[in-house]
Amino acid sequence: MMWNINHPYMLVTAFVLLSSCKHAILHDIKEWKTCQFAICCQCKDVPGSRNLIADCSGKDLLPIPMFPSNIQELSLRNNNISTILDGIFVGNSLMTTLDLSFNKISRIQKNSFKGLTNLLSLNLSNNDLKYENRSFEYSAFHFLENLKHLNLKKNVHTSFMPDLWKLRSLESLSMDYIADKIGILDEKFSYFKNLKKIDLSGLTGNCKLTILTEKTFLFLPQITHLNLSKCKIQYLFKGTFKLLRNILELDISLNTCLRFEALENITTDLQHSAIEILKVNYIHGILEKTTVLKTSHIWNLQNTSIVRLEAAGNRIQTIESGAIKYLPETFKSVDIRKNMFSAGNYLLDVINMKIASLEMSDNTSPYDIISSYVEKCPIKEETITINSENNWLYTELPILKLFKNRSGKFVFPMPRSLKKVSLRSSNVKFELPNLSFTENEIENIDLSDNFLHTWTGPITNVKKLTHLDLSVNFCSNVSKTFFSPDFINLRCLLLQNNLLGLVLPTDVNGEIFQNLHNVVYINLSKNKITNIPNLLFQKQHNLERLDLSENIIDDINFKLFHMKKLMFLNLRNNRISTLSQYAMNELDSIAKINKNLTIDLAENNFVCNCDSQSFVKWMIYTPIVLHHRKEYQCKTSQNTISLRNPREVFKTIQKECMSYEGLIIALTTGILMFIFILCGGIVYRYRWKLRYLYYMVKVKWHDPEPHSDNKDERLYMYDAFVSYANEDDTFVHHKLLNNLEKNGGIQLCLHRRNFLPGNDIATNITSAIHNSRKTIVIMSANYLASYWCMFEYNMAKMESIYERNCENILFLVFYEQMSACDLPLKILELVHCQSYIEYPNDEYGDVVFWEQFQKAIKY
């Protein structure tokens, strides 16, 4: 199939293909190289042969150079060529395609194309070929017997057609045609038995066919594709297309002087033809009154196999009831955009249609589409009009009440085979209620650019829906049940340019999107969102693309880790100053599983300071692709710097934020440890003094004694406190008690007898020592092993130092024979400095011992 590259629809299609095949194109570009025969041209090999494709376009060439014999395709487009020399292509019999468009060629001679016997496609559009200058010599195309495709657009400004009788193989012809009265493609066209496609469109050339009659295409009954768009047609009589039984596609768009009633003549002629695509866009004046699509306009189509009808921009306001029923079963697609539809009973006929695609968007006003193209038309009778100030009256329309059941749910009729419907820019103004569709195959719904301000729902019976567009609707309220479980197959959800920032932050449990398990793309850009709740996307395990750009988000604080398939996260143009550690961890966790994760953080308010060091460091080492990273900038305390090289930025921040925090902590810790050890040493050194003072305060608090200026006059409760081990109590309670207290009259304090019950031991000991004149220590191995005995010894020593002015109140009695090595240093010190006595344990020695003992205690 050969494409006409000057056709606008083909150009759009080509652009889409080029955009979607980027990698293939880049690979193709690499194959081009400078031609050996001409440095101004680019060449590449034809796959599977030694032939070449040469591109010499846009090189300001004046003459056509000689080309080698193996050139198969040649482009000389957009040069300054004015003449095709005779025989210049004599050696190029292998050439199949030649493009000479956009030059200054004013004459085609008899031998201009000599040698091109196998040429299949020739493009001479946009040159200076004119009939007045006799640009075409007789038999100018004599050598092109195998030519199949010829383009002569934007040349001739009259009804003249050059001598093409030799082109018996021609299949498609694009040319200019100017006829101020009746346009007739005369008997010259009878030679073209293989001609299938004729393009006379004024969109890509010069066309004026004021009147069309049954004679216009008399000699072209075999035509399958006919383009008469923008040909300034004013009258189209019945019978014009009657002979075109093989016609598959007819485009008569942008002939606004025809007015809509001409559609009846067109469809009448096309009945029993092979028509599949009929385009009657903008055949009604944009300044005319509104129209009605009547049964008579389309009822003849029931005798055809038409598949698609385009009737955009015709100011259609309503459809006659029952008219839709006359469309054949083959009818699958309709484009009625840019009309002025109001609701009516025709909506009830829609359910019986078997169409798969319904394009009904932009039903506001057609003026913005072709406002620069207004034809001056002859005065005709006024067309039928319906007086109405508004279109799409969707605010409590009586017609809609027909779809409301007893439970308050709206059940909207849908054609069972319909797969795509568009009501974009149709001025629809109402709340999306509790709505269910009849049985359907709907896959794509476009309700964008309307005024659907509240989405209440739930919307049900949409189990095959894969694409939903609700963008640009000023919506600020979405119920948590709007997306029902019937949205199970939804893949693409477009919600951009609304006011969802007022409702989404309140969905802390993620209930709004909880039923969208299989969605792969969500667009929430331009919604004034300030915060995304942590669980908003908790059920979107299959999400691949998430667009949150152009909001006022300051951080990623929502759950991401479960999105294992996430490929692209768009956060462009928000208010992010730095990413939190949580956000960085979430993103990195996905990147470990999905190596193709990309995130766009451009146009955010990044800040480079000590607090953002971790974020800048993350940018260096993260495996995530940072889209448009060269555009990233961050603000410092002094200016704004680029984040193109985050490693250098990190080093700069690191130097500026280098702190002595570690050193300060170490020094502080060292000082505190030193103070702690010092205090511990002091406490340990004076532990007995501190304990003594503590217990003395406690004793004096509970048992205050009379104040006396002379401590020698102090009265004691006991003459002596006996400090001994429990294992030595036999000696103390029998011998010591009898010899000192009974026989010597010395009052002793014994802990088993004299300690006050209820007081703790330490307090009793301190009190007993303090209230005794002397302290007798019965020294033995058991004594040294007893904690409380050593406590009593140290308390007595403290008493002698701090209360008795270093008076010797301790009296040591060695009950057992002990060597110096068995005694602690503190006891040896006392032994060396003060007197002590050893218990003799014999009859004579006992008498002397007890006498000396009594004497030492009393004095």
Automatic annotation (TrEMBL):
A Pfam family annotated for this UniProt entry: LRR_8
UniProt-listed InterPro entries: Leu-rich_rpt (IPR001611), Leu-rich_rpt_typical-subtyp (IPR003591), LRR_dom_sf (IPR032675), TIR_dom (IPR000157), Toll-like_receptor (IPR017241), Toll_tir_struct_dom_sf (IPR035897)
Highest taxon of the lineage: Eukaryota
Topology term for the membrane: Single-pass type I membrane protein
Leader peptide range in chain numbering: 1-24
SUPFAM superfamilies documented for this protein: L domain-like, Toll/Interleukin receptor TIR domain
Residues covered by the TIR domain: 716-857
Protein known as: TIR domain-containing protein
Native species: Mytilus coruscus (Sea mussel)
